[in-house]
Design goal:
345 residues; mainly alpha; 18 helices
Length: 345
């Protein structure tokens, strides 16, 4: 991921880093929770619009498309309003998208997925900017990994809560609860807005012509092309992200459709994988800081991710339950714990 640069960043601020870290962690968890509506409810959502269950892959791809668009185009928003306000705006988009995702009209469902995807970009860009300012020197990998632990935290909440709510109540109840959590998070981080957004530029022009410009696309991509090391770490992240996206999008659907688990049991398995990742991400960050090499730890995670994914692809209904649970635990360590290291690198 290309890190934003609004102004020359100051050295790490000696004031408390805990508040900003908890804020970006909470926003990351909430944004991720919203993006897990589709994968955790896929069997039910697909049936409502008369689509095959494997269509969850297209919906997940649309969410990712929204995330990519927001990351490429939202720099003017970040400059004008600051990191914290950008995070809040992203969550507002996600809350609306969550509500739309319960619609039984395919076009509305697609629009909801795109809006949910838009909420995932600001935690990457704005969250990175916040940690660049506030992370203590010598603990950058650990701080970024803690922030990225919000991804499995949000996934755990989604895996345990959404399938159960949908089964006991309705999909509408599940998505309304998700939207409410997003709006509560917007309110919770508001007290930090003044301090975190102190470097914003109120004179930054706004409007569609500012957002949708070739320069907004060309600058980050040009930086990626011009820096070989960044290009390599970006390519590695793309490959690792592809494997992670498969697990996140299809795990629940796969164990329900192919291994014949119930939806709540599949959601619990998804939550277990994410729980392991909550511990695994800071652990890998700590190990990388002690070793002085995030690249070496990333290489180990890549090998483990490939092996774990291959094993999952070979699983059948005849496999004992404990073996699938063991694969989910392994996936939490390998497939789902590398993100903070890549951000720090």
């Amino acid at each position: 991921m290309i890190q934003p640069s609004l102004k020359p960043l100051p050295t790490t601020e000696p004031v408390s880093w805990l508040g900003p870290l908890l804020a970006v962690l909470t926003v990351q968890a909430t944004a991720t929770f919203l993006t897990r509506i589709v994968p955790t409810l896929a069997p039910s959502l697909a049936a409502r619009v008369d689509w095959p269950v494997e269509s969850v892959g297209y919906l997940a791809a649309l969410i990712t498309t929204g995330s990519l668009l927001s990351q490429l185009l939202c720099m003017p928003l970040l400059r004008r309003f600051g990191a914290m306000r950008s995070l809040q705006i992203g969550l507002a988009f996600g809350a609306v998208g969550a509500l739309l995702s319960a619609a039984q009209q395919p076009a509305v469902l697609l629009a909801g997925c795109l809006l949910v995807g838009l909420c995932l970009g600001p935690p990457s860009l704005a969250g990175t900017h916040v940690l660049q300012r506030f992370a203590p020197a010598g603990h950058r990998s650990l701080m970024f990994s803690i922030k990225q632990a919000g991804v499995p935290l949000g996934s755990i909440l989604a895996g345990l809560m959404l399938p159960l709510l949908a089964q006991k109540q309705s999909i509408e109840h599940a998505v309304v609860a998700a939207a409410a959590i997003a709006l509560l998070t917007v309110a919770a981080v508001q007290p930090l807005r003044r301090r975190v957004d102190s470097g914003r530029d109120p004179m930054q022009a706004m409007g569609w012509r500012v957002f949708v410009t070739l320069d907004n696309l060309r600058r980050p991509l040009g930086m990626l092309v011009s820096m070989p090391a960044l290009r390599r770490i970006g390519a590695a992240g793309a490959c690792l992200g592809a494997g992670q996206s498969v697990w996140f999008a299809f795990l629940v659907t796969y164990v329900v459709a192919e291994l014949h688990w119930t939806l709540p049991a599949a959601g619990a398995l998804f939550a277990l994988m994410q729980l392991v990742s909550v511990l695994g991400r800071p652990l890998l960050g700590y190990v990388a800081d002690r070793m002085g090499s995030g690249i070496a730890v990333l290489q180990c995670a890549a090998v483990g991710s490939g092996l774990t994914t291959f094993a999952l692809a070979c699983s059948t209904p005849s496999w004992p339950t404990w073996s699938i649970v063991a694969l989910a635990v392994a996936g939490g360590c390998t497939v789902s714990s590398w993100n903070g290291l890549q951000f720090a690198e």
